[in-house]
Amino acid sequence: MKKTFYLILSLLITYLAYRVWGYYAPPSLSEPYRIEKQNDDTLRIAYIGDSWAFMHRDHPCSIASIVGDSIHRPVRVHTFGVSGLTSKEIYGAMTEQGDYRRFMERGYDYCFISVGINDTYQKKSTGYYRRSMEGIISQLLANGTHPLILEIPNYDILKAYQRQTNTRKALRHLSMFVNSCDMDCRQSHRDALRSLLTENSLWPKVTLISYQDWNSDFAHDQQAYYRSDGVHLNDAGYARLDSAIAQAVLSHETAARRNSGYRQE
């Protein structure tokens, strides 16, 4: 009887350890899969990520008109997002068979990526975030898609914590302990991404949309651009972010035209 009890206990502990490891471990990266892009004059921009991407489809999008009016080409913006996903989960959804991958397989010239907010919200480690971003960027660059990465914005991370249940708060504190993560870990994740881009010489191939370019005044922006939850954008916030995305695309297009030896990534 005791042997059976200890065997069951051992199996239970092993199972729990496996689940905890899977929850906190960075992803294993796979070889990028290849996509055939459409050969026409239309500039295609994907807008992917978490709830910011999911909710973007409910707001008027000005990216196509701003870019199209400047480059005099047809521009199409396609949006796909799933609320609550972390960077690891988005990378997994992009590479595994499913709706996310089918969306990506349409082929795009640019891909705006809203990812990392849930990493900081859930207190994932910087290594988890950095490794996931490495996989996402590699998948895009392998298919000639220029990544436009949203740097962790100035959302109200403390309000987001306070709105959680006591059970979730306890989990966040456990995650902070396991990952040596502060309550406000936004800047450490920003630094981790910048280190990834610098150490792998990715700056010419990747555009980082800095929060300081559009979301630097916390007190003002919370009132002007965010919903009452302090986490999600309102119409004015999406319009401001759309403008920043459009300017990033135009800057890259201009640089590509100026340098005849530069091929768009």
Give the arrangement of secondary structure elements.
Blueprint: H1 2-24, E1 43-49, H2 51-56, H3 63-71, E2 75-81, H4 87-95, H5 99-104, E3 110-114, H6 117-121, H7 126-141, E4 146-150, H8 157-162, H9 166-179, H10 186-199, E5 207-209, H11 218-224, H12 235-258
Parallel strand pairs: 1-2, 1-3, 3-4, 4-5
Helix pairs in contact: 3-12, 4-7, 7-10
Which terms summarize this structure?
about 260 residues; alpha/beta; globular; 5 strands; about 10% strand
Strand content: 5-15%
Morphology call? globular
What is the spatial order of strands in the main beta sheet? Answer: 2-1-3-4-5
Number of separate strands: 5
Cα end-to-end separation: 64 Å
Structural category is alpha/beta
Which sequence of SSEs, written as H and E, runs from N to C?
A: HEHHEHHEHHEHHHEHH
Estimated radius of gyration? 20 Å
Helical content stands at 40-55%
* Main sheet summary: 5 strands, parallel
Which residues sit in consecutive blocks of at least 5 with pLDDT less than 50? none
Roughly what is the average pLDDT, rounded to an integer? Answer: 91
Tally of alpha and pi helices: 12
